[in-house]
Amino acid sequence: MSPEDVHPIACPIREIFDRVAGKWSVQIILLAVSKGPIRFTELERGIEGISRRMLTLTLRQLERDGLLVRTVYPTVPPRVEYTATEMARELRGAFEQLAAWAVRHQDAIADAQRAYDDRQEKVAAN
């Protein structure tokens, strides 16, 4: 397969990867999958370091992508819940496999990073 053949396929897939595997998206999806319907405030408490604005933007994108369903209940104040779709539930296995891969290789990655940093320090010293 040539680079010309790969580009039309890779470009939209890369965009999906960027959104699904984003810093906040993974955590939101996993919380929504594991806890069932989840409220905004529960997500906010469950994701360390996320701002309200970033949570809102990420939730909107995940809803737009069909990974979450937003349900508004007509109460005062309005109650909003997010539920993972079947597509999002499928991601759980992929995320678990990726996490297992990271655990298996974390020491090798740390060793490679140290070796790289050592080489860069030697180059900078010369």
Task: Provide an overview of this structure.
This protein is mostly helical. It is 71% helix and 11% strand. The protein has five helices and three strands. It has a three-stranded antiparallel beta sheet. A hairpin with a 5-residue loop joins β2 (68-73) and β3 (79-84). α2 runs antiparallel to α5 (86-125).
Instruction: Tell me the strand percentage band.
Output: 5-15%
Q: How far do the termini sit from each other?
A: 42 Å
Give the topology string: H per helix, E per strand. HHEHHEEH
Number of strands: 3
Describe the biggest sheet? 3 strands, antiparallel
CA radius of gyration: 19 Å
**Which class do the helix and strand fractions yield?**
mainly alpha
Shape: elongated
Share of helix, binned: over 70%
Number of helices: 5
Write down the overall mean pLDDT.
Answer: 91
Strand order of the largest sheet: 1-3-2
Given as residue ranges, the uncertain stretches (5+ residues, pLDDT < 50) are: none
